[in-house]
Structures are given as structure tokens and as C-alpha cells.
Specification:
This protein has 13 helices and 9 strands. The protein is α/β, with parallel strands linked by helices and 303 residues long. The protein has a 6-stranded parallel β-sheet, with helices on both faces. Helix 8 crosses helix 12. It starts with 7 loop residues before the first strand and ends in an 8-residue tail after the last helix.
Length: 303
């Protein structure tokens, strides 16, 4: 436990989401140390007035709260239990907040492993994008023990506009996030199919965007992602590979549960095809580009 009344927070993973979360925590008056595999990201955080650490173990040493903002379960496990991992140095009463989207069974296993050492684990996937992360207005889907919630509260208050407390054990937060990801992936694939099909029909796709966003066919993803297609700008806000991963997890979960998910299975194939065409690290709206390439359809920004 830190000696002062101000909780010390370590944020591990200073990507587009983690950096915004770290700045929100600092703005709330918490003492924040940032850690990332990119030395440049850490240097930027230090230049903004935060502290920096080279390893998760170093970052966690004085922390009451560790917020892990990495891509997947494997990276989360490495941050906790890998070489120079946070579990080596985390104080006995500290809490580890896991924000990565992962299979609920893995969240349960990591929680059990950490809790066996006397620390707390909060399963807390996030939604809302980089802008909301920077504004401290994320939606957090959390589950864990009452003690984990109590310990994590100062950080959760600083990072979230909406905090859902979804159960007293890890895994529930992860399961809720996977339902969100099923819908998000399907909606992006459907929006991309529609905008590319509209272009093939020779329609003015800016006018299509205007009409659809005022009509029943609209979705949050259509409204949020299709401007990237209109602008021909596929700088990754969220990459294609994220949905290859997340829709893949959904297929695994569904197969285990003997539950058919044909619509999300079709969406996964669209993301896989887009990744196979060399756009895996580009914005997830690139599914529209994949449709355009396959059908010889012209979209804005196409060479």
C-alpha cells in the first residue's frame, strides 16, 4: 500500500486506449506510473507529467491498483506471471484490473491464480474507444469480489462514465464483453457490406450515409465506422485483427456450448478475408475495402 492517501496506479499498456485511461487517472488526482513495450509511449507519458517504468514488475512495485490495457489473454498472463511480471511485486492488498477482451474461462483461471497469492483480480473489459478513454467516459463491464471492487473504486470512478457490476467472480465481465463483440463485429461487417454494395449501385455514398443514419437500418457501428470509408482513411482506431481474435473466441465459446452462431461465423470470415488481403492491421472498416476489391467497386481513396 502506498504511504500517502492518494492511491498509486500503474497502467500497463499505453496504446490508444491505455494512454487515454492513464491521462484520465492523472486528471482525477491519482499518482500514475505508465509502462509499455514501446519506450516512446512511456517517454510521451513522462513528458506529460506521469511516471514511467520499464517492466510490469517495476510499475507494480508501489501500486495499489494495476490497470492492464493489453490486447489479449496471452499478453495479460505475461504481464502478470511472465518474466518481470506484476505478480512478483504487487502488494498483498493490491488489485489487478484486467481490461483485455478474453475467453471467460481464461479470466477465471487468471483470477484464481492471482487470488491464490493473496491479491485481488477484477475482470473489467472496456468499451467506448480511444476518445472516451481520454475523456474518462468508458463503459466498464466488471466482475469480481467485493474486496476487488472496493480496492479498484478510485480508478474505476476516474475511467468510466458507466460501470456495470456484473457479478462477484471473474468471467462474468468477460462473457458480457463477448456478447458486445459478437454484435459489434456483425454490425461492422454488415455496415461494410451495405456501403460497398451502395457504391456498386452507383449511389452517392455520402448521401447513403446521411439517409441510413436517419433511418431504421442504422447502427452505432455504421454511424461510427462508415465515415472512415467515406474519407478513404483506414488509420487503425480499432484493427481488423481485433475482430479476427474476438469473433474467433465467440466461435470457440459457441462450439463448447453447442450453440449455433451462424451470423457471427459469417462476419468472422469477412474479417479473415480482409486480414488475408493484407489489411489486418488497418481500421476494421477495411472490410468495405475487401468487398470493393473482390467486386471491382470504387471507394474513396482507392488507388
Amino acid at each position: 500500500m502506498s504511504s500517502s492517501a492518494t492511491p498509486h496506479v500503474a497502467v500497463i499498456g499505453l496504446g490508444s486506449m491505455g494512454y487515454g485511461m492513464a491521462t484520465s487517472l492523472r486528471r482525477a488526482g491519482l499518482a500514475v506510473t505508465g509502462c509499455d513495450v514501446s519506450a516512446d509511449a512511456v517517454a510521451r507519458f513522462v513528458a506529460d507529467g506521469g511516471k514511467g517504468a520499464k517492466t510490469p514488475a517495476e510499475a507494480a512495485r508501489d501500486a495499489d491498483i494495476v490497470v492492464s490495457v493489453v490486447v489479449n489473454a496471452a499478453q495479460t498472463e505475461a504481464i502478470l506471471f511472465g518474466k518481470e511480471g506484476a505478480a512478483e511485486t504487487l502488494a498483498k492488498d493490491a488489485v489487478f484490473i484486467s481490461s483485455a477482451t478474453m475467453d471467460p474461462d481464461i479470466a477465471r483461471r487468471l483470477a484464481k491464480q492471482l487470488e491464490a497469492t493473496g491479491r485481488h483480480y477484477l475482470d473489467a473489459p472496456i468499451s467506448g474507444g480511444a476518445q472516451r478513454a481520454a475523456q474518462g467516459e468508458l463503459t466498464i463491464l466488471a466482475s469480481g469480489s467485493a474486496a476487488a471492487f472496493a480496492k479498484a473504486r478510485p480508478a474505476l470512478d476516474a475511467m468510466a462514465a458507466k460501470l456495470y457490476e456484473l457479478g462477484d467472480a471473474a468471467g462474468q465481465g468477460a462473457a458480457f464483453k463477448m456478447i458486445n463483440q459478437l454484435l459489434a463485429g456483425v454490425h461492422i461487417a454488415a455496415a461494410s457490406e451495405a456501403i460497398a454494395f451502395a457504391a456498386k449501385q452507383g449511389l452517392d455514398i455520402r448521401k447513403v450515409y446521411e439517409v441510413i443514419t436517419a433511418s431504421a437500418g442504422n447502427s452505432w457501428m455504421f454511424e461510427n465506422r462508415m465515415p472512415h470509408v467515406l474519407d478513404g482513411d483506414y488509420t487503425p482506431r480499432s484493427a481488423v485483427e481485433i475482430f479476427v481474435k474476438d469473433l474467433g473466441i465467440i466461435q470457440d465459446m459457441a462450439r463448447s456450448a453447442r450453440f449455433p452462431v451462424p451470423v457471427s461465423a459469417a462476419a468472422l470470415q469477412m474479417f479473415l478475408m480482409t486480414a488475408a488481403a493484407g489489411m489486418g492491421r488497418d481500421d476494421d472498416a477495411s472490410v468495405a475495402r475487401m468487398y470493393a476489391q473482390v467486386t471491382g467497386t470504387k471507394l474513396p481513396g482507392a488507388k
